[in-house]
Specification:
single chain, mainly alpha, two-stranded parallel sheet, 9 helices
Length: 236
Protein backbone atom coordinates (compact mmCIF):
# COMPACT_ATOMS: atom_id res chain seq x y z
CA UNK A 1 0.00 0.00 0.00
CA UNK A 2 2.98 2.32 0.44
CA UNK A 3 3.89 1.99 -3.23
CA UNK A 4 0.23 2.27 -4.23
CA UNK A 5 0.04 5.66 -2.51
CA UNK A 6 2.57 7.03 -5.01
CA UNK A 7 0.83 5.53 -8.03
CA UNK A 8 -2.63 6.73 -7.00
CA UNK A 9 -1.48 10.31 -6.38
CA UNK A 10 0.60 10.44 -9.55
CA UNK A 11 -1.78 8.71 -11.95
CA UNK A 12 -5.30 8.23 -10.60
CA UNK A 13 -6.45 11.46 -8.99
CA UNK A 14 -7.10 14.64 -10.96
CA UNK A 15 -8.74 17.83 -9.76
CA UNK A 16 -9.71 21.28 -11.02
CA UNK A 17 -11.05 24.45 -9.46
CA UNK A 18 -11.19 28.11 -10.44
CA UNK A 19 -10.27 29.17 -6.91
CA UNK A 20 -6.58 29.06 -6.00
CA UNK A 21 -7.27 28.57 -2.29
CA UNK A 22 -9.51 25.57 -3.01
CA UNK A 23 -6.72 24.14 -5.18
CA UNK A 24 -4.17 24.64 -2.40
CA UNK A 25 -6.41 22.93 0.15
CA UNK A 26 -7.02 20.00 -2.21
CA UNK A 27 -3.29 19.68 -2.92
CA UNK A 28 -2.58 19.65 0.82
CA UNK A 29 -5.31 17.08 1.50
CA UNK A 30 -4.04 14.69 -1.18
CA UNK A 31 -0.44 14.98 0.00
CA UNK A 32 -1.44 14.35 3.62
CA UNK A 33 -3.51 11.32 2.59
CA UNK A 34 -0.44 9.94 0.81
CA UNK A 35 1.63 10.61 3.94
CA UNK A 36 -0.93 8.64 5.94
CA UNK A 37 -0.10 5.53 3.90
CA UNK A 38 3.64 6.08 3.59
CA UNK A 39 5.79 7.92 6.13
CA UNK A 40 8.40 8.61 3.42
CA UNK A 41 5.82 9.95 0.99
CA UNK A 42 7.10 13.53 1.05
CA UNK A 43 10.60 12.34 0.12
CA UNK A 44 9.29 10.70 -3.04
CA UNK A 45 10.73 7.64 -4.74
CA UNK A 46 13.74 7.38 -7.02
CA UNK A 47 14.55 10.98 -6.04
CA UNK A 48 11.30 12.18 -7.61
CA UNK A 49 8.75 13.82 -5.30
CA UNK A 50 5.06 13.10 -5.92
CA UNK A 51 3.12 15.93 -7.58
CA UNK A 52 -0.69 15.58 -7.44
CA UNK A 53 -2.45 16.46 -10.69
CA UNK A 54 -4.73 18.99 -9.06
CA UNK A 55 -4.77 22.49 -10.51
CA UNK A 56 -6.30 25.92 -10.32
CA UNK A 57 -7.60 26.65 -13.81
CA UNK A 58 -5.53 29.39 -15.41
CA UNK A 59 -6.30 31.87 -18.15
CA UNK A 60 -4.26 32.54 -21.26
CA UNK A 61 -5.13 36.24 -21.35
CA UNK A 62 -1.70 37.45 -20.26
CA UNK A 63 0.43 34.94 -22.19
CA UNK A 64 2.50 36.82 -24.75
CA UNK A 65 1.78 35.35 -28.19
CA UNK A 66 4.84 37.06 -29.66
CA UNK A 67 7.08 34.82 -27.55
CA UNK A 68 5.98 31.72 -29.48
CA UNK A 69 8.62 32.54 -32.10
CA UNK A 70 11.30 31.48 -29.60
CA UNK A 71 9.86 28.00 -29.01
CA UNK A 72 10.41 24.81 -30.99
CA UNK A 73 13.23 26.25 -33.06
CA UNK A 74 15.11 22.94 -33.21
CA UNK A 75 12.06 20.93 -34.28
CA UNK A 76 11.29 19.93 -37.84
CA UNK A 77 9.19 22.43 -39.76
CA UNK A 78 6.21 20.06 -39.89
CA UNK A 79 6.31 19.32 -36.14
CA UNK A 80 6.77 22.97 -35.24
CA UNK A 81 3.88 24.05 -37.47
CA UNK A 82 1.59 21.46 -35.91
CA UNK A 83 2.70 22.41 -32.39
CA UNK A 84 2.14 26.11 -33.07
CA UNK A 85 -1.39 25.42 -34.30
CA UNK A 86 -2.24 23.42 -31.18
CA UNK A 87 -0.65 25.94 -28.79
CA UNK A 88 -2.61 28.76 -30.41
CA UNK A 89 -5.76 26.66 -30.11
CA UNK A 90 -5.15 26.24 -26.36
CA UNK A 91 -4.40 29.94 -25.94
CA UNK A 92 -7.67 30.79 -27.67
CA UNK A 93 -9.63 28.21 -25.65
CA UNK A 94 -8.36 29.42 -22.28
CA UNK A 95 -9.16 33.10 -22.73
CA UNK A 96 -11.24 34.07 -19.66
CA UNK A 97 -11.13 30.40 -18.57
CA UNK A 98 -11.75 31.21 -14.90
CA UNK A 99 -15.15 32.58 -15.90
CA UNK A 100 -16.20 29.12 -17.12
CA UNK A 101 -14.14 26.59 -15.17
CA UNK A 102 -14.50 22.89 -15.85
CA UNK A 103 -17.23 23.25 -18.50
CA UNK A 104 -14.67 24.37 -21.07
CA UNK A 105 -14.49 21.95 -23.97
CA UNK A 106 -10.84 21.05 -24.63
CA UNK A 107 -9.88 18.84 -27.57
CA UNK A 108 -7.23 16.15 -27.25
CA UNK A 109 -3.91 17.43 -28.56
CA UNK A 110 -0.55 15.82 -29.25
CA UNK A 111 0.70 16.33 -25.69
CA UNK A 112 4.14 14.84 -26.28
CA UNK A 113 4.64 17.19 -29.22
CA UNK A 114 3.50 20.19 -27.18
CA UNK A 115 5.84 19.28 -24.33
CA UNK A 116 8.75 19.17 -26.78
CA UNK A 117 7.73 22.50 -28.28
CA UNK A 118 7.37 24.31 -24.96
CA UNK A 119 10.62 22.90 -23.54
CA UNK A 120 12.54 23.93 -26.67
CA UNK A 121 13.03 27.58 -25.79
CA UNK A 122 15.80 29.34 -27.68
CA UNK A 123 16.28 33.05 -27.13
CA UNK A 124 20.01 32.84 -28.02
CA UNK A 125 20.90 33.65 -24.44
CA UNK A 126 20.22 37.31 -25.04
CA UNK A 127 17.49 39.41 -23.50
CA UNK A 128 15.94 41.64 -26.10
CA UNK A 129 12.82 43.73 -26.09
CA UNK A 130 11.00 40.93 -27.94
CA UNK A 131 12.27 38.05 -25.79
CA UNK A 132 11.80 39.81 -22.43
CA UNK A 133 9.52 37.62 -20.32
CA UNK A 134 9.87 34.49 -22.48
CA UNK A 135 10.94 32.41 -19.44
CA UNK A 136 7.72 33.41 -17.71
CA UNK A 137 5.79 32.45 -20.85
CA UNK A 138 7.57 29.09 -20.77
CA UNK A 139 6.31 28.42 -17.23
CA UNK A 140 2.78 29.52 -18.07
CA UNK A 141 2.63 27.32 -21.17
CA UNK A 142 3.82 24.33 -19.16
CA UNK A 143 1.03 24.91 -16.65
CA UNK A 144 -1.57 25.46 -19.34
CA UNK A 145 -0.71 22.19 -21.08
CA UNK A 146 -0.98 20.22 -17.81
CA UNK A 147 -4.43 21.66 -17.15
CA UNK A 148 -5.56 21.10 -20.75
CA UNK A 149 -4.52 17.43 -20.49
CA UNK A 150 -6.74 16.95 -17.45
CA UNK A 151 -9.68 18.71 -19.09
CA UNK A 152 -9.46 16.68 -22.32
CA UNK A 153 -9.47 13.20 -20.77
CA UNK A 154 -12.28 10.78 -19.98
CA UNK A 155 -12.40 9.26 -16.52
CA UNK A 156 -13.70 6.22 -14.69
CA UNK A 157 -15.25 8.47 -12.05
CA UNK A 158 -16.10 12.18 -12.00
CA UNK A 159 -17.29 13.87 -8.80
CA UNK A 160 -18.30 17.50 -8.64
CA UNK A 161 -20.06 20.08 -6.52
CA UNK A 162 -21.10 22.47 -9.31
CA UNK A 163 -21.94 26.13 -8.78
CA UNK A 164 -25.62 27.07 -8.66
CA UNK A 165 -26.51 30.22 -10.57
CA UNK A 166 -29.56 31.18 -12.59
CA UNK A 167 -29.11 32.74 -16.03
CA UNK A 168 -30.32 36.13 -14.74
CA UNK A 169 -27.31 36.31 -12.36
CA UNK A 170 -24.64 35.41 -14.92
CA UNK A 171 -22.32 38.09 -16.23
CA UNK A 172 -22.46 38.76 -20.00
CA UNK A 173 -19.38 36.62 -20.83
CA UNK A 174 -20.66 33.59 -18.96
CA UNK A 175 -24.20 34.02 -20.24
CA UNK A 176 -23.00 34.15 -23.84
CA UNK A 177 -20.73 31.11 -23.33
CA UNK A 178 -23.57 29.03 -21.88
CA UNK A 179 -25.94 30.00 -24.69
CA UNK A 180 -23.37 29.07 -27.34
CA UNK A 181 -22.18 25.80 -25.82
CA UNK A 182 -25.04 24.54 -23.62
CA UNK A 183 -28.12 26.11 -25.17
CA UNK A 184 -30.42 23.25 -24.10
CA UNK A 185 -29.23 23.41 -20.49
CA UNK A 186 -28.95 27.13 -19.84
CA UNK A 187 -31.54 27.50 -17.06
CA UNK A 188 -28.93 27.20 -14.35
CA UNK A 189 -25.15 27.02 -14.28
CA UNK A 190 -25.13 23.61 -12.56
CA UNK A 191 -26.98 21.90 -15.41
CA UNK A 192 -24.18 22.65 -17.87
CA UNK A 193 -21.72 21.06 -15.42
CA UNK A 194 -23.87 17.94 -15.15
CA UNK A 195 -23.93 17.53 -18.93
CA UNK A 196 -20.27 18.30 -19.50
CA UNK A 197 -18.97 16.15 -16.66
CA UNK A 198 -21.08 13.21 -17.79
CA UNK A 199 -19.37 13.60 -21.18
CA UNK A 200 -16.00 13.51 -19.39
CA UNK A 201 -16.89 10.12 -17.95
CA UNK A 202 -16.18 6.81 -19.67
CA UNK A 203 -19.16 4.83 -20.91
CA UNK A 204 -18.92 2.39 -18.00
CA UNK A 205 -17.87 5.06 -15.49
CA UNK A 206 -19.61 6.85 -12.64
CA UNK A 207 -20.59 10.49 -12.04
CA UNK A 208 -21.43 12.01 -8.69
CA UNK A 209 -23.07 15.43 -8.34
CA UNK A 210 -24.28 17.66 -5.54
CA UNK A 211 -27.16 19.56 -7.14
CA UNK A 212 -30.51 21.11 -6.26
CA UNK A 213 -33.38 18.67 -6.88
CA UNK A 214 -35.34 21.15 -9.04
CA UNK A 215 -34.08 19.47 -12.24
CA UNK A 216 -36.37 16.52 -11.53
CA UNK A 217 -39.66 18.36 -12.07
CA UNK A 218 -39.33 21.97 -13.34
CA UNK A 219 -40.21 22.34 -17.01
CA UNK A 220 -37.09 24.36 -17.91
CA UNK A 221 -34.96 21.27 -17.10
CA UNK A 222 -36.91 18.92 -19.37
CA UNK A 223 -34.08 18.56 -21.89
CA UNK A 224 -31.65 17.82 -19.09
CA UNK A 225 -33.96 15.10 -17.78
CA UNK A 226 -34.28 13.63 -21.28
CA UNK A 227 -30.49 13.62 -21.65
CA UNK A 228 -29.98 11.85 -18.33
CA UNK A 229 -32.78 9.37 -19.05
CA UNK A 230 -31.51 8.49 -22.53
CA UNK A 231 -27.74 8.77 -22.07
CA UNK A 232 -27.13 7.67 -18.48
CA UNK A 233 -28.35 5.40 -15.70
CA UNK A 234 -29.46 7.41 -12.67
CA UNK A 235 -28.84 6.07 -9.20
CA UNK A 236 -29.62 7.74 -5.86
Amino acid sequence: KREAAFDIVEHNIHGLDIDKRAYQLAYFAVMMKGRGYNRRFFRGRDDVKPVPKVYAIMESNDIEMNHLQFFGTSMSEADRTKALEQVKYLLYTFVDAREYGSILNVDVCDWELLDRFVNDLNDNGQVTFESLGSEETHEKLQGLIKIAKVMSKKYDAVVINPPYMGASNMNPKLNDFIKRNYADYKSDFFSSFVIHCSEMTKESGYCGFFTPYVWMFIQSYEKMRNYLYNQTTVET
